[in-house]
UniProtKB/TrEMBL annotation:
Catalytic activity field: a long-chain fatty acyl-CoA + 2 NADPH + 2 H(+) = a long-chain primary fatty alcohol + 2 NADP(+) + CoA
InterPro entries xref list: FAR, FAR_NAD-bd, NAD(P)-bd_dom_sf
PANTHER family referenced in this protein's UniProt entry, alphabetically: FATTY ACYL-COA REDUCTASE CG5065-RELATED (PTHR11011:SF116), MALE STERILITY PROTEIN 2-RELATED (PTHR11011)
Alphabetized GO MF terms: alcohol-forming long-chain fatty acyl-CoA reductase activity; alcohol-forming very long-chain fatty acyl-CoA reductase activity
Ranges for domain Thioester reductase (TE): 47-205
Record bears the keyword Transferase: no
Gene Ontology biological process terms from the UniProt entry: long-chain fatty-acyl-CoA metabolic process
Protein name per its UniProtKB record: Fatty acyl-CoA reductase
Length: 213
């Protein structure tokens, strides 16, 4: 039986020559949602590269605003320099209204996609969805399930009508507005896929490693 080697037992030369390392070499990455516990992952980078902070530029934003609240100078930087985008920022509350969930999670995704369309070096837009985006289905395939009501129509209806009956109709068996907003975002990303090379991942849960604690 082949011996299993942990990362710290693998020669550094082999680690540096991996396809993953080669893909990221010389490229800049934009990650949303770093103020959440995702940011704790950066603490571990100190173990491998104490000078990693010199390669990080914090960018202030607000996903509830146009262009996710990024100022014009930083937008210009993103458009010129970024090759890979990880979009993990979201409001994960399970008790928010349908209108709030769509405004914060889905519309923010669209604002970021608009920015990505103008990124000159973009290779991949990676969207962190959820395994529960289509939990109203008994079988979930690796594909995007489109809603019965067009996106623009849903935006307009939710803006002016907030009835419980409408909410339940749109949720279509989903347990909360969060999972619905993620499903809607997946459809949105598919709509932009010709202009923005995209990947959708559906983790069941995202959390830091136990060693952080």
């Amino acid at each position: 039986m082949e011996e299993i080697k942990f990362r710290n037992e693998i020669p550094v030369e082999s680690q540096l020559n991996s396809p993953v390392v080669n893909f990221y070499t010389g490229r800049s990455v934009f990650i949303t949602g770093c103020t959440g516990f995702l940011g704790t992952a950066f603490q571990r980078l100190n173990e491998y590269n104490p000078n990693f902070r010199a390669k990080i530029k914090p960018i202030s934003g607000d996903i509830s605003k146009k262009y996710i609240g990024v100022n014009e100078n930083d937008l210009s930087l993103l458009r010129q320099e970024i090759s890979i985008v990880f979009h993990s920022a979201a409001d994960t509350s399970f008790d928010m209204s349908l209108n709030d969930a769509v405004n914060i999670n889905t519309k923010a995704t669209e604002e970021l996609l608009k920015i990505c369309k103008d990124m000159h070096q973009l290779k991949a837009f990676v969207y962190v969805s959820t395994a529960y985006s289509n939990c109203n289905r008994s079988v979930i395939d690796e594909k995007v399930y489109r809603c019965d009501v067009p996106l623009e129509t849903q935006y307009e209806v939710l803006e002016y009508c907030k009835s419980e009956r409408l909410t339940q109709y749109l949720l279509d068996g989903r347990p909360n507005a969060y999972s619905y907003s993620k499903a809607l975002s997946e459809e949105l990303i598919q709509n932009y896929s010709n202009a923005v090379p995209s990947i959708i991942i559906r983790p069941s849960i995202s959390m830091p490693s136990h060693s952080v604690y």
